[in-house]
Amino acid sequence: MTPEPYEAQLLETPFHARTSSLCSTRQWGNWSGFASVNAYTSVDMEYFAARSTAALFDISPMTKYAITGSDAASYLNRLLTRNMEKVKPGRVVYAVWCNDAGMVIDDGTVFCLGENDYRLCSQERHLPWLLDSAIGYNVEIKDITSGIAALAVQGPTSSAVLKAMGLVGIENLKPYSLTEFDLDGHSLMVSRTGFTGDLGYELWIDPGAAELLWDRLMEVGSLYGLRPMGSEALEMTRIEAGFIQAGVEFFPGDLPTRPDRLRSPFELGMGWLVDFDKGHFIGRRALLQEKKTGSRYALVGLDIEGNKPALHSFVYQGKDTEVGIVASAMWSPTCKRNIAIASLKTPYHKDNHGLWVDVYVYRELKWERIHASCKVVDKQFFNPPRRWATPAGDR
Amino acid sequence: MKVYDAIVIGAGHNGLTTAAYLAKAGMDVIVLERQPYIGGATVSRELYPGFTYSNCSYVCSLMRPEIMRDLELPRHGLQVIPYEGGVTMMRNGDYFATYPNHDQNRREIARHSAHDAEAYDYFGAETLRQCRFIKKMLLTTPPDPTSFKPRDLFGLLDIARRFHGLGEEWMYDTIRFWTMSCADFLDQYFESEVVKGHLAGTSIIGTALGPYSPGSAYVLLHHYMGEVDGSIGSWGYARGGMGAVSGSLANSFQSYGGEIRTAAEVEQIIVKNNRAVGVALSGGEEVLGKMVISNMDVKRTFDKSMDPADLPEDFLHRVRNFKIRGSSGKLNIALDGLPDFPSIPDGCRGRTGDMHVSDSMEYLERGYDDWKDGTWSREPYIDMMIPSLTDPTMAPPGKHYMSVFVQYVPPYLADGQWNDEKRAAFGKTVIDKIAEYSPNFKDLILHAEVRTPWDIENETGLTEGNIFQGELTMDQLMFNRPVPGYAQYRAPVKNLYMCGSSTHPGGGVMGAPGANAAREILLDMRIKT
Ligand SMILES: Cc1cc2nc3c(=O)[nH]c(=O)nc-3n(C[C@H](O)[C@H](O)[C@H](O)COP(=O)(O)OP(=O)(O)OC[C@H]3O[C@@H](n4cnc5c(N)ncnc54)[C@H](O)[C@@H]3O)c2cc1C
Which among A99, A105, B417, B515 has the fewest CB atoms less than 10 Å away? Predict the structure, then answer.
């Protein structure tokens, strides 16, 4: 039973009995109103499980909408900047949607489960926007967040783990594809998707079978280094993969309270998701205009000197021209580089000379200021071939 | 006939590091390696189907992050993964584990001594201070204290300034630290035998000193100097084995256009008019280059691969007296499953790290006594790890690769040379020792590679099997390494350089000697990078 609002600040996911017994740091966070583990034992070791063996992450709190009805495909084509007609059942795509000004409202993944049968997963909640833009279409849009239990299994041995669990042929599933299996009479949907930028899968099941799925994975996973991972480690893999995050790299289009804080898809490096040839979609006119006149910002990867993360630092050019801000930053243990995702004013992202960031480090009662030069680089800092290989490798 | 810009002798990780930096700067470089495979003591080989061994070195953390970055080693296949803690199994059936979590660690030490549990923080702070002081020197060429060249004077001044920056009390501590024994150092903090025994292990690894010998505290520090992602003193594995370090260096080098020739043993460095001009291979073939850079240890370079007439006598004399005593052995074992260690509780992750059985300082010192007597330790120090618990590429699922480093093993035995029979007896000593703590261990062994100093020398060319290409004692460190007056990577012959671990800052998979040598060479070439 879902507790009444006065009874609980945070809800429990269907895996709570398992995650809470393993969360030895007792560090929890709030993910869309659900209690979500920040770290089970050690952020580093969980991160390295994702990069070297496999990590298990509870993604149940992710906002999920079911979008069905005879107009579902054409509705999504209007909502999203991407051409959804090309997306066949069994496929998953990454997408963004905008307001009329061409500013991004959110990003998410769209699962095409069947003809006119979609699932949209996103970070934030958007029911009013989704419903309002559906007026005139024969679609039904339902929040199904609590109705599905979901786990991500990510890392180089993830395919081997699923194979060992009896998911025959899983290695042949292509990136951004989905398929169904039977798990003791429960229908288990598996998609080759994830937020770590590595080989990985997401598993979707009826909440009643959540613990069964968790136990089965942990049992077979022990031979493959499977380890539960909290959201702090996930965040590290997210930055290395160069994925953007609502509330970090951009602020959802309907929420900022200050002018000029929104970003268009082009300004987030998402121009490849905009299809002007597919006909009308929300924000099209404004985006066409932006294409002509140019964008204000560019989202870039930075490779920064030294090893101190430059989180939220100003980015400067030359002596002291302020040209941008760092949105995410970390020392990348895998790339052995001090990386960051930054929003720069155009055209400063093009001239790769004389950029630097100001990093402040507080050490034993003293601020130390580090003037660190930096370079614009591809923000997909980590993108191993095994992520894309089909059949997927075992390790 | 082709004349290369530079010839590097040996594809050890330092030779490859130097080669990659030079190729990156635009030079035409060839690396000549005696073995049919690369890596030297930084190597992975499959000697039993499905299992990858790290045949010599097995843990990675000393490798300087600056080098990984400069040469883009992650992009070329290097991934370093840390492991969690370690454990010493005790003769009384108890155990002592270490944990990355501070408070778990403190409570574990307190099981053995409440005093030591809190003293551990003092110990940690002191080693960190010492590491910080020395670390700055790793990637710099040691200044020559007898020289009046501006760069030497500035170098000395810099060390002096940083030294004085420590403050009076820490200055005294630092001076004492460099010459003191590990036992004296640990006694300042700890009372529990097992705590000291556990920590002292790294002070004897690869070293012909006991924990009570002066100078052994520095060796402990040398092993603490490593870091994994800024976490100083922590250790990790190279994913895919240590061969991934040399493999990524080779890939990086080749991406800059470098050339590697394996199964190419250099017999002699050719010197004409006091200049190195090339090398002669054992088949008789000559390879010419504008310079020759040796990754071999100093004895092999100057005493075995050169005509003595080409070298100053006093230099050669010092090379011959360079201390390079072998003291280590290694077992690499393929296991059919995970061995039980009944003294370690289930769920204690210490077993994923370094495991030991040396539960006191005396245990270690007695092992050293055997070495002095010309035999391997009857009760050996073992640094035992199961990398396949962390790295899935080392063994098939459910099976395991175990790496067992053994101290002390002499290069020459009191009763004559090493032979197959004695090697087998040495292997049995180690396996029996492990079996004392693991009842099912012997039944799980599928294959074991047993390596004595004699094998290590024959295979990698490390004289006497000394893992550091020369001992890490004060008289052989910094501007004294390898030979006073020749610590700046240049040999007494023109166009001949040294880049192996015999040079500053010494052994371990660190890459620093290789990077420093490259910097000096580029300076001589007046190539700006
Ligand atoms: C058993 C063992 C365990 C160790 N464990 C660790 C550890 O866990 N962590 C760590 O950091 N360090 C460890 N070390 C130390 C570390 O491995 C060495 O210090 C380091 O690898 C030395 O690197 P190098 O490049 O200086 O020399 P080497 O690796 O010795 O390279 C020299 C190269 O020259 C080649 N060569 C020799 N003669 C000739 C010739 N005539 N012609 C052509 N080529 C030639 C050799 O084949 C070799 O490839 C260990 C060493 C050993 C032996």
Answer: B417
Give ipTM to 2 decimals. 0.93
Residues of chain B with pLDDT under 50: none
Both tokens assigned to B109: 């030490």
- Residue A38 shares a structural domain with residue A166: yes
pLDDT value at position B6? 98
CATH of residue A224's domain is: 3.30.1360.120
Q: Over 90: is that where the pLDDT of A128 sits?
A: yes
User: Is the Cβ pair B81, A223 closer than 8 Å?
Assistant: no
Report pLDDT digits (tens) over B265-289: 999 999 999 999 999 999 999 999 9
pTM, entire model? 0.95
Residue A255, pLDDT above cutoff 90: no
Closest CA to A294 of A369, A238, A347: A347
Same domain, A304 and A205: no
Domain that holds residue A348: 296-385
CB-neighbour burial class of residue A325 (10 A; exposed 0-12, middle 13-18, buried 19+): middle
β-bridge mates for residue A337, sequence order? A332
Query: Is B391 an interface residue toward A (CB < 8 Å)?
Result: yes
How far CA B489 is from CA of A206, B8, B484, in Å, comes to 66, 13, 11
In this structure, the answer to whether residues A172 and A50 fall within a common structural domain is: yes
* Residue A47 and residue A152 in one domain: yes
A164 touches chain B (CB under 8 A): yes
- From the list B74, B81, B231, the residue facing A335 with the nearest CB is B74
Find the CATH number of the domain harbouring A351. 2.40.30.110
Q: What is the DSSP secondary-structure string of A246-278?
A: BTTTB--TT--SSTT----TGGGT-GGG--GGG
Find out whether B30 and B301 touch, Cβ atoms under 8 Å: no
Peptide bond before residue B482 is cis, with ω within 30 degrees of 0: yes
Residues A54, A154 share a domain: yes
3-class secondary-structure state, position B184: helix
Examine the domain organization and report whether A153 and A46 are in the same domain.
Answer: yes
> Is B80 in contact with B239 (CB distance < 8 Å)?
yes
Site to probe by mutation for ligand 1, drawn from B21, B34, B260, B403 as the one with most ligand atoms within 8 Å of Cβ, is: B34
pLDDT at B529: 77
Residue whose CB lies within 8 A of the most ligand 1 atoms, among B44, B57, B430, B497, for a mutation test: B57
Which positions in chain A touch B129 (Cβ < 8 Å)?
none
Beta bridge partners of A167: none
CATH number belonging to domain B3-42+60-79+240-323+469-524? 3.50.50.60
Residues A160 and A40 grouped into a single domain: yes
DSSP A330: E
Residue A349 resides in a domain? yes
Q: Is A41 a member of any domain?
A: yes
Distance CA B126, CA B131 (A): 9
Ligand 1 site residues, Cβ closer than 6 angstroms: B 9-15, 32-35, 40-42, 56-59, 62, 265-266, 295-296, 300, 328, 330, 405, 456, 460-462, 467-469, 500-501, 507-509
**Secondary structure (DSSP) of A152-179:** EEESTTHHHHHHHTT-TTGGGPPTTBEE
Closest CA to A110 of A132, A90, A139, A138: A90
Q: Say if residue A259's pLDDT is above 80.
A: no
Q: pLDDT, tens digit, for every residue of A58-110?
A: 999 999 999 999 999 999 999 999 999 999 999 999 999 999 999 999 999 99
Number of domains in chain A: 2
